Amino acid sequence: MMVFAALTAVALPARADAREGDIDGVPYRVEVPAHWNGTLLLWSHGAYSLESPAPSDIELTNHPATKQWLLDHGYALAASQFRVPRGWGVVESGLKDQMDLLDWFTANIGKPRRTISAGASAGGLTAVLLAERDPRRFAGVASLCGVLGGTTGHFNSALDANFAIKTLLAPGLDLVHVKDPQANTTNARRALGAALDSPQGRARIALAAALADIPGRYASRAPAPDTVAGQVEQQTYYAAYDRGAFWGLTRTDIEQRAGGNPSWNTGVDYRTLLARSSQKELVKRAYSEAGLSLRDDLARLDAAPRVKADPTAVRYLARYGTPTGRTPWPVVTLHTTGDGNVPPENQRRYAAQVRRAGDPANLKQLYVDRGYHCSFTASEEITTLRTLLTRIATDHWPTTRPTALNSAATGLGPDYQTVFDTDPEPGLHPTTPSFTHYHPGPYLRP
């Protein structure tokens, strides 16, 4: 049985005092229930796509049902839309705009008894950095699907995958200093689509994906396909679409903000990188099926011209940012095992940072056996938050055995058991809680 201290009272639907406005032109939304318990959850959203407008609604949680549960149980919610809501300017923007909102909340609503810094994806990174940079303002951190290996490694990893695609499949593509972002992205997608049609092309996609730890599991609810072709197809969805913006707008945007190219692969040994990759066995199978020499293709990567970074841009990404690992308060993380946008190896890198600079006893890392990025049920998010809140209230972590977590999540009822999935069509679909034991491999690139 999982025990959550002082968190089990039955709650009725809560009326919330909702306030919207702007702080120096930056929109925000705050919701405070009538019987506020004194705890504020400050939510940091992820990096919205540069290929479309930012949402008009300001999100307060990852899953919409999580928001209502928190309000019903007395928690106040606040979020800034950020001055820069799209692309990787969200981290720099969020670090200022969220603190401005916290100051506004304190002055206009009241000083929270405790504040939780929470967020998802790039917002999961922002949530950690906010608390690290102003630790006295926060009681704990909840980072969902966070880029906790750091922005530098995230962009270097994208460069590694794209470098292999350019070298082995499409030499005309731009890697950095992209001249025509839209055309470069379109050409990359076409090249990947064409490569899928042959065993040789699939083998080279598998190698490129492995260099960024991209798994062959794109659908949220279905397991990874059994076949090489099926898994490589799902890796391609990540490489062409979810991470496809690294061929164009995401790359040009960060270079403009950072004052140059922040990514490099000088000195990288791709044989070593592949040997450490979580996807190396899929690569071996793919090359065997294709009748290709993996050794020869790795030699081609080693011989190809490398990409140098601009020091000014490297310093920018170092600031916005890589977690130091300091943990004067408890941190809980939640990640899907099949995430190809922000692979779960990010969590291993963060745990290593905490061992160096913080207190490992203050870190609890949870995993869900599911594909895709940030694909959690509300029940899993709520159970994760309750784990953190219990740790804050009692100074002890409750049990986090997967069976106990799944039982607690199931007990929240059917309204909280949906997850976003692209199959059979994009939207929320029913599923069951899927907490699991998981040990991610090494993070490939600093």
Structure characterization notes:
This is Prolyl oligopeptidase family serine peptidase. Residues 426-446 are annotated as: Disordered. It is a single chain. With 446 residues, this protein is α/β, with parallel strands linked by helices. It folds into two domains: 16-150 and 322-436, 3-Layer(aba) Sandwich (Rossmann fold); 152-317, no CATH class. It has 15 helices and eleven strands. The chain has helices spanning 64-72, 90-108, 122-133, 151-168, 181-195, 199-210, 228-242, 249-258, 270-276, 280-290, 294-303, 311-319, 345-357, 378-394, 402-410; strands at 16-23, 26-33, 39-44, 76-80, 114-120, 140-144, 331-338, 363-371, 418-421, 427-430, 435-436. The strands form two sheets. The chain has a nine-stranded mixed β-sheet with strand order 1-2-4-3-5-6-7-8-11, with helices on both faces. Strand 1 and strand 2 (26-33) form a beta hairpin. Helix 1 packs across helix 14 and helix 6 (199-210) runs antiparallel to helix 10. The protein starts with 15 loop residues before the first strand and ends in a 10-residue tail after the last strand. The relative contact order is 0.14. Mean pLDDT is 95; it is low at 1-12.
CATH topology of the largest domain: Rossmann fold
- Summed over residues and divided by their number, the pLDDT gives a mean of 95
Query: What shape does the CA trace take?
Result: globular
> Any idea how many domains?
2
Query: What's the helical proportion of residues?
Result: 40-55%
The name of the CATH architecture of the largest domain is 3-Layer(aba) Sandwich
Protein name: Prolyl oligopeptidase family serine peptidase
Region (Disordered): 426-446
InterPro entries: AB_hydrolase_fold (IPR029058)
